[in-house]
Amino acid sequence: MADKSKHTWNATHLPDLAGRTAVITGANSGIGLTAAAALTGAGAHVVFAVRDPRRGEAAARTVSGSVEVRRLDLADLSSVREFAAAWDGPLDLLINNAGVMMVPEQRTPDGFEMQFGTNHLGHFALTNLLLPYLTDRVVTVSSGAHRWGDARIRFDDPNWTTGYHPNRAYAQSKLANLLFTLELQRRLTESGSAVRALAAHPGYSATNLQSHAASPAARVFMKFGNRFLAQDDKAGALPTLYAATQDLPGASYVGPDGLGEMRGAPTLVGRSPAASDPATARRLWTASEELTGTRFPLETAVRPG
User: Fold this and answer.
1) Which pLDDT tens digit goes with each residue over 171-202?
2) Does residue 133 have an active-site annotation?
3) Are 254 and 239 in contact, with CB atoms under 8 Å apart?
4) Which residue, 14, 63, 67, 108, could crosslink 112 as a Cys pair with Cβ 3.0–4.6 Å?
5) Among residues 78, 99, 91, 98, which one has the least CA distance to residue 131?
6) What secondary structure, in 3-state letters, does 28-58 show?
């Protein structure tokens, strides 16, 4: 019987990353930690950008290779600015991995709905603030949830001040991740930058992300799914690693190749029509600039959208 591992892309196929530096948000657990271990194993220096430095330090000690831990709370724009202001020197790779999922209604310190504020706005601000240092690419972790129901950007009320629904708010944040990637790549191309923006999703992967769902029934279902249906975090990290290291076009979206993109080897996958609309992507970018007070740093080179 043929050895399938020789033909299926996995972390053993990573290129030599010696001399390269990566920042991974939420690297203290789940696919973020798995991705960090794989990248350091290939020679990269990885910065764990985490909300709780003590947990980050504990996680970093489980990884062999060159690592450091820095505090970053994506739900707090002052923390995002502090992290970016402390950065010095080239940054090859930014992996926007951290996130919250289907949580009870909460507000960030800046007044944003927690999922939109953390999953999208925090990463939007971080990317723009670090972009002057970036040399290679930005990978933003989205989800198949961007297709859920009538997933759309609620431009009239993106922070769900009325009618909050945890699943729909999560879907909006993941749709925002893809629209952000689409518009970021447009701006990078028009500015003449060699940096690429890509997105990835892990399929159905067993991590602790699902344990904070607002609905008790959802938590029970996900506990069952994590045990019997999901792939492990090593497999779940592969689309992120593939997007981070392979020669792919800007704005590519990587996910598992199995049924329903739930599990399998990494491959290029499609988006929903809502996630492919350039006009919506530009509108979201403008709204995100206004909400975060951050702008694309190469703005003068970009033609108006």
Assistant:
1) 999 999 999 999 999 999 999 999 999 999 99
2) no
3) yes
4) 108
5) 91
6) CCHHHHHHHHHHHHCCCEEEEEECCHHHHHH
